[in-house]
Amino acid sequence: MTKVAIIGYGVVGSGLIELIDKNREKHSKNEIVITSILVRNKDKYIDSSHREVITTSVEEFFSAESDVVIEVMGGLHPAYDYVKNALLLKKHVVTANKDLIATFGHELFQLAKENNVSLKFEAAVAGGIPIIKPLTESLYGNGINSIQAILNGTTNFILTKMNSESLSYEEALKEAQDLGFAEANPESDVMGYDSARKLAILSSLAFDKKFQWNDISIEGITDIDENDFKYANKLNCKIKLVAESFKCKSGIYTSVKPILVDEQSILAKIDNEVNAVILNGDEIGELLFVGKGAGKLPTGSAVYSDLNDIINNRFTDVDSFNKEEANVIKFASKTCNCILRIKTSNIDEAINKCRENFNNIKIIDKSISGEVAIFIECTSEAYVEKFIENLKNEDNYEDAKKLIVA
Ligand code: HSE
């Protein structure tokens, strides 16, 4: 018998409990018994078949017998204190909490090691896609060169709906919230922080170094409007929030930003809440992982698989979060092709400035009054950023932004 205590009974918690109940036969030799479920408001669970073990008391929760504590409440606090307490009590811990692992991973894995227990986190990145196990186990013989991924279901859902159904940003976000994809505070999703936390976790495992998620160059999707989709379509591209990291000479380039990807590319075909991770290993070459990155049962399935590993004594040591800190590079020295959207009362002047600064330019659209969209080819992203910065000093300038074309 394995005694399990669960913190949180929201979207992921209810998915996990559904799977525990559904798979009882598979575990008939080693029954899973839920001994306690910690929630904020007991009234919501009056009809649950597990209502007998539901509690709002932290003390009562930790005094219930358990072999494994599963944290699916999300957020940093009080999840951090609960997980720390569970590890100190020598319980194995399973968590779906990317904020927690990205922020306190180094401390929590150390604590797990000191207490001779396992801390597992498959559901923390890319929902239902098994990606932590491949990186920590299956690909052990490889050095990873690069990660390119869509790691946030909510933003991918919003971008898909805005493009294919012409939904407004607000309508698409509301739908993602109703479907249980978004965070309690969806700012984490739309500002790109959630993707950055997940990228930091994957990068840590892939490059065996410690990453601070807020060292990553992050741009969310809040500035994307219908004209961006119009320009992207003119170039036969789709807009995706891409999380990327790869080895370069002086360190590891990492970024999360909206990027125009060719509509024939793999990432362009990843729609709605689906996530994708493309890994490049030095021995295996390219690997692609695709699946639902958010939602009750996909994420519940990843938590359940960690629980199953613990029940079957399959433990993996994770020490990457305690290794030396990565030298994070924000601007890669590689070609940067992009669309520049310049708002100005003197469009000809803006076009001339682009001509003076870039070798190849192509005007994409001038149909919106006071705005020009220009495709430019440049040798570095830093140079484009500097160009945009300098435009601010021009008399007729109103606003400018770039959209990178992969
Ligand atoms: N809000 C997250 C997402 C949930 O949309 O991807 C899964 O981590």
From TrEMBL:
InterPro entries on file: Asp/hSer_DH_NAD-bd (IPR005106), HDH (IPR016204), HDH_cat (IPR001342), HDH_CS (IPR019811), NAD(P)-bd_dom_sf (IPR036291)
The UniProt record lists the keyword Disulfide bond: no
GO molecular function, one term: homoserine dehydrogenase activity
EC number: 1.1.1.3
UniProtKB keywords: Amino-acid biosynthesis, Methionine biosynthesis, NADP, Oxidoreductase, Threonine biosynthesis
Domain Homoserine dehydrogenase catalytic residues, every copy: 130-307
Reaction equation(s) it catalyzes: L-homoserine + NADP(+) = L-aspartate 4-semialdehyde + NADPH + H(+)
Pathway entry: Amino-acid biosynthesis; L-threonine biosynthesis; L-threonine from L-aspartate: step 3/5; Amino-acid biosynthesis; L-methionine biosynthesis via de novo pathway; L-homoserine from L-aspartate: step 3/3
Family membership noted in the UniProt record: Belongs to the homoserine dehydrogenase family.
Protein name, entry field: Homoserine dehydrogenase
Species name: Clostridium saudiense
